[in-house]
């Protein structure tokens, strides 16, 4: 297969971790006979330094023309970097919001997987963890409360703030379809999360999800109220496969799910639109405190590349091979500094990439 991949290395540890993901992809290309063509794109602080803006229209066009974009992370130290003296629309993160909007990336996927070898990082009790968990939060990313009309004004002599939570049925349907499609590639279970006992938007959410579910007879689905879901994530995370939810609930629940795995450097993510296109990036930031020292953990980015193979290119076997190689490296006792514990072998970012690439076969 011939795949055109836009590559945004970004700032901080971005270039280091993306290089390792490309190393692993190159090994996949060699073993499975594919061609991955990379086009380097600038976004974030490096784009500000080069072009004066965090994202140019030309970069957006190039990203649109590619099949998928693999990204490191963008941004610098928010207290010391000169990028944060600029007005908000010119700061690194503005590039991220702009590209998500320009590419209509309405579906955000964040897997939360607990590796056996990293169980000690999980803050939950052993009897709750059991043999581990493997879930994916599917969050609607371009609608709901964060994008509704808002205002703050004086009403009857009191300052009053209003935010509005709006969803139409098309917005719900397209994310529900993504959720069920992705469940078909996993354990075929969807938990749709809402607050239908209170909110109209949730009642419409529930109705549309039920309609979509009819087209997926193989997928088991259930509805869960968001407050219950927040509890269940720490009470019995093993019950979940795909958690499908709206923007704000997903924002909160995905951080909670990430926290129960305990390892920020291991968490991948993807943002998808209606086509096969996706933007794949680690869940963590650009870690300027450790940039350039070859100590960052590249695994979240390598796993994001695996998601790209699975969801944009339908190369499930190849994605499995990357995920398996990561498991093997951990089982063989190698750790970057952030996940290091006594008795394991500490390796740098580049060595971790080598070890994972070696295990692709
Ligand atoms: P961060 O995720 O960059 O770092 C938090 C802590 O985790 C730091 O101690 C860091 O060293 C560590 N860490 C993060 N990733 C790691 C990895 N792969 N290996 C080892 N350690 C790792 O969050 P922050 O410090 O709040 O933000 C730093 C910058 O990143 C800011 O400019 C922020 O805006 C930006 N940011 C970007 C994105 C993105 O590009 N999508 C997301 C979040 C934050």
- What fold name goes in the CATH topology slot of the largest domain? Isopropylmalate Dehydrogenase
Let me know the largest β-sheet. Answer: 10 strands, mixed
Distance between the termini: 17 Å
The beta-strand count equals 14
Number of helices: 12
Helix content: 25-40%
Question: What's the helix and strand layout?
Answer:
Elements: E1 2-10, H1 14-32, E2 35-41, H2 45-51, H3 57-65, E3 68-73, H4 92-102, E4 107-113, H5 126-129, E5 134-140, E6 150-155, E7 158-163, H6 169-184, E8 189-194, H7 200-213, E9 220-225, H8 226-235, E10 242-245, H9 247-261, E11 268-272, E12 278-282, H10 299-311, H11 316-331, E13 334-335, E14 345-346, H12 349-358
Helix pairs in contact: 1-10, 1-12, 6-7, 8-9, 10-11, 11-12
Bound molecules: nicotinamide-adenine-dinucleotide (NAD).
Describe this structure as you would to a colleague.
- The protein is α/β, with parallel strands linked by helices and 361 residues long.
- The chain folds into two domains: 1-106 and 268-361, Isopropylmalate Dehydrogenase; 123-260, Isopropylmalate Dehydrogenase, CATH 3.40.718.10.
- It contains twelve helices and 14 strands.
- It has helices at residues 14-32, 45-51, 57-65, 92-102, 126-129, 169-184, 200-213, 226-235, 247-261, 299-311, 316-331, 349-358, and strands at residues 2-10, 35-41, 68-73, 107-113, 134-140, 150-155, 158-163, 189-194, 220-225, 242-245, 268-272, 278-282, 334-335, 345-346.
- A ten-stranded mixed beta sheet has the order 2-1-3-12-11-4-5-10-8-9, with helices on both faces.
- β11 (268-272) and β12 form a beta hairpin.
- α1 (14-32) runs parallel beside α12.
- The radius of gyration is 21 Å and the shape is globular.
- The model has no long low-confidence stretch (mean pLDDT 96).
- The chain binds nicotinamide-adenine-dinucleotide.
- Nicotinamide-adenine-dinucleotide (NAD) binds next to α4.
